[in-house]
Amino acid sequence: MNSKNKKQIYKQDGRKYIDTEYVPQDPKHREKEITQISKQIIEFIINRVSGSFLIYGNSGTGKTMSFKVAMSVAQAYLSKNDPDRKDHKMIFVTAKGTDITPLMTEICRSLDVKAPSRGISFKDYINLINEKIQKTYVHICIDEFDNLLSRTREKAEDLIYYFTRTERLSLTIITNRINLAKEIQDARVFSSLNTLNSINFRDYDPAQCYDILKERTNMTFNPNFIYDNVLQTLSKHIAIEGGDIRKGLSVLGLCAKYAEESNILTITPEIMTDIIEKYDILKDGEKPEKTINFRKADSGSDIFTPFNKSMQHTGF
Ligand SMILES: Nc1ncnc2c1ncn2[C@@H]1O[C@H](COP(=O)(O)OP(=O)(O)OP(=O)(O)O)[C@@H](O)[C@H]1O
Ligand SMILES: [Mg+2]
């Protein structure tokens, strides 16, 4: 692969826009959701009430992204309209791959509360947080909450109970378990979770997937790398599978990797179909860019492992 080709596929600084961690400034098709979330955060903070807000929807439908954008919208509104009242804090933590203790330690760290990272009970953490928030108001968002519920149900339920009943504190829970509320076994906890105060991130339809992926493609790649009909094939597939934009971005990243390694400048419909198929056989948790290798065979011809057979008709 020569560096000239790399330049021709990607726009200057384009790579960052295909990264799934990139947060778009003004995401399409989630305007209503972002407005609703930011209004909710502002309401909690201005009225200084305790309570909860539930965000649910399938994977890759923009929940984390929308909350992050809503948090900056709320912050901008509060700084402009309430400049003298800086006594609030918004905290965003994720429960992915973590247990209750590291999560509580992280929440404490974000609040500048000195807390040991082990050896104290959940209730002790709550007490430490309580002391700190006597002088302030805190909104905490816990992303990927279902992980916590699977790992340590009782403690996750305790967390909901205390975080929704502590004065000067409110909680947003983000989950992709649509029925999270039904899974809660403790009736006290169930009643503290205001399930009516929730927002469902509906799956994106094919046209929405196309708009979103088109925008990211335009920001990332030079024109002619992926033509509209090829992007439409990807968008339809993504929509059928539940609208996971993260997967769409990963497939686009794999297209670029394939093009770089094969020295081509345009993704044909056949290549796109093969890359989608290849992606679909990955197991949960496998990182596509690590697992899928586009390597040269000993003979010197390009092969697309292990889909080398299916790639033959593409002519590469
Ligand atoms: N409307 C949109 N506009 C632009 N990018 C989007 C949009 N929706 C989702 N994305 C992108 O798709 C990727 C996945 O979004 P996000 O991480 O917010 O999904 P999620 O709903 O939190 O998924 P999960 O449940 O797996 O955590 C991100 O890179 C995000 O920027
Ligand atoms: Mg998320």
TrEMBL record:
<dbReference type="InterPro" id="IPR027417">
    <property type="entry name" value="P-loop_NTPase"/>
</dbReference>
<keyword id="KW-0547">Nucleotide-binding</keyword>
<keyword id="KW-0131">Cell cycle</keyword>
<dbReference type="GO" id="GO:0051301">
    <property type="term" value="P:cell division"/>
</dbReference>
<dbReference type="GO" id="GO:0006260">
    <property type="term" value="P:DNA replication"/>
</dbReference>
<dbReference type="GO" id="GO:0005524">
    <property type="term" value="F:ATP binding"/>
</dbReference>
<keyword id="KW-0235">DNA replication</keyword>
<dbReference type="InterPro" id="IPR055237">
    <property type="entry name" value="Cdc6_lid"/>
</dbReference>
<keyword id="KW-0067">ATP-binding</keyword>
<dbReference type="Pfam" id="PF22703">
    <property type="entry name" value="Cdc6_lid"/>
</dbReference>
<dbReference type="GO" id="GO:0016887">
    <property type="term" value="F:ATP hydrolysis activity"/>
</dbReference>
<dbReference type="InterPro" id="IPR049945">
    <property type="entry name" value="AAA_22"/>
</dbReference>
<comment type="similarity">
    <text>Belongs to the CDC6/cdc18 family.</text>
</comment>
<dbReference type="InterPro" id="IPR050311">
    <property type="entry name" value="ORC1/CDC6"/>
</dbReference>
<dbReference type="Pfam" id="PF13401">
    <property type="entry name" value="AAA_22"/>
</dbReference>
<feature type="domain" description="Cdc6 AAA+ ATPase-type lid">
    <location>
        <begin position="210"/>
        <end position="270"/>
    </location>
</feature>
<feature type="domain" description="ORC1/DEAH AAA+ ATPase">
    <location>
        <begin position="51"/>
        <end position="172"/>
    </location>
</feature>
<keyword id="KW-0132">Cell division</keyword>
<protein>
    <submittedName>
        <fullName>Cell division control protein 6</fullName>
    </submittedName>
</protein>
